[in-house]
Structure formats: structure tokens, C-alpha cells
Amino acid sequence: MTEPNNTNNPEGNDPLEDAFNAPDAEGAPEAEGAEGVGAEADGQGGSAAEAAADPSEEEPIEDPTTEAEKLANERLEDLRRLQAEFMNFKNRSQKERDQLREFVVADVVSSLLPVIDDIDAARKAGDLDDGPFAAIASKFEDALTKHGLERYGDTGDQFDPKVHEAVMQQPTSEVEPDQVSMVFRSGYRVQDRVLRPAQVAVAVAED
């Protein structure tokens, strides 16, 4: 039997076995490179996890109690503002009603001034000293007084062109100059509204 020729393999090794056990020259670096990339990826993943877990970079959580107090304070301010607006509206409405009432009373009383003048003339003539008509006239005048009617214009009053109508000047020493020396017709007003100025004579110094 012929023995295998080992001329080219002096050590007697099997060429097929050596080829199978030989390291892959190109495969080894690829495996090492893959392990490096994986390690790098693990490093980056670890850094991201650490950054996400860092409590210093997390957004602060608002206290629900503080939010409730803030909302309650806002609602309280709204309520106070509405209450102030309502009080202003109420006061303004009351003032407008009072003014309207004053205007209505003044208009009604103004239409009755001729009747009041007739009553004054009858009283001065002595026709209303006693009797049922005198009682009726007194009740009529009292009712107008309760509604704010005021008679003015007396001798000795300081002359005021806002409430007096000067029809003449009268030299006299009975009163001081620029005072009312004589009243021809009484004036009337309701509150601060003049219904009719008083017709008067104004005193001047005697020569």
C-alpha cells in the first residue's frame, strides 16, 4: 500500500483541519467592531436614561392647593367687583328716581301757583279768617309743604338775583342797601329748584 505523500507538509498536519481551524482574517475585526458599536450604543442609552432620571431637570409639579387658592381669590375679586358695580347702579338709580320725583312735584306745584296766589289774596282781604274754606286752604297748603314747597321772599332778605326779581329800587333807611325793602309777590321753590322768583323792591341808600 502506498503511504500519503507528506512532502509539502513536513509536520504531518492535515491541511483540511488546518484550514477549518484557521482564524477568519476578515471576520474577527467585524465581530470586534460590532461589540464596540454595541458598547457605544449602551453608553448613549445610559446617558439618556440618566438625563431623564435627573430630578434637577424635571418640570416642577404645581401644588393643587395653591391652584385652588389662586382660583378662589380670583372668584372673590370678581364677586367684589360685581358687588361694587351693583351698589353704584343702585345709588345711581335711587338718585335718578329722586330727581324724577322732584321734577314731577315741581311741575304739578307750578300749575297750582295761581291757586296759591288767590288763597293769599283772600287771606290778606280777611275772607279766610274762619270757616270751612279757611280749613280747606290750610290743608291744601300743608299738603304742598309736605311735598317740598317752600315760600320765600321777606323784607330784609339779602337781594339775590338768582331767586329774586327786582322790579324797582327804593331809597329807604329802614333796611340796609341791597336788601329787600318790599315784596310784591312771594317766590316759591321745591328743594333747590326755583319755581318762581320773588318780585321785590331793592333798597338803596337815601341821598
From TrEMBL:
Pfam family, any one: GrpE
Molecular function via GO: adenyl-nucleotide exchange factor activity; protein homodimerization activity; protein-folding chaperone binding; unfolded protein binding
Lineage: superkingdom: Bacteria
Protein purpose: Participates actively in the response to hyperosmotic and heat shock by preventing the aggregation of stress-denatured proteins, in association with DnaK and GrpE. It is the nucleotide exchange factor for DnaK and may function as a thermosensor. Unfolded proteins bind initially to DnaJ; upon interaction with the DnaJ-bound protein, DnaK hydrolyzes its bound ATP, resulting in the formation of a stable complex. GrpE releases ADP from DnaK; ATP binding to DnaK triggers the release of the substrate protein, thus completing the reaction cycle.
Subunit structure: Homodimer.
Localization (cell): Cytoplasm
Matching InterPro entries: GrpE, GrpE_CC, GrpE_head
CDD domains in alphabetical order: GrpE
Cellular component GO terms held in the UniProt record: cytoplasm
SUPFAM superfamilies with a match to the protein in the record: Coiled-coil domain of nucleotide exchange factor GrpE, Head domain of nucleotide exchange factor GrpE
UniProt KW keywords: Chaperone, Cytoplasm, Stress response
Ranges of biased composition (kind: Low complexity): 1-11, 37-54
Homology family: Belongs to the GrpE family.
Protein name: Protein GrpE
Region annotation (Disordered) ranges: 1-69
First-listed, main subcellular location of the protein, grouped into a coarse class: cytoplasm
GO biological process, one term: protein folding
Encoding gene per record: grpE
Compositional bias segments (type: Acidic residues): 55-66
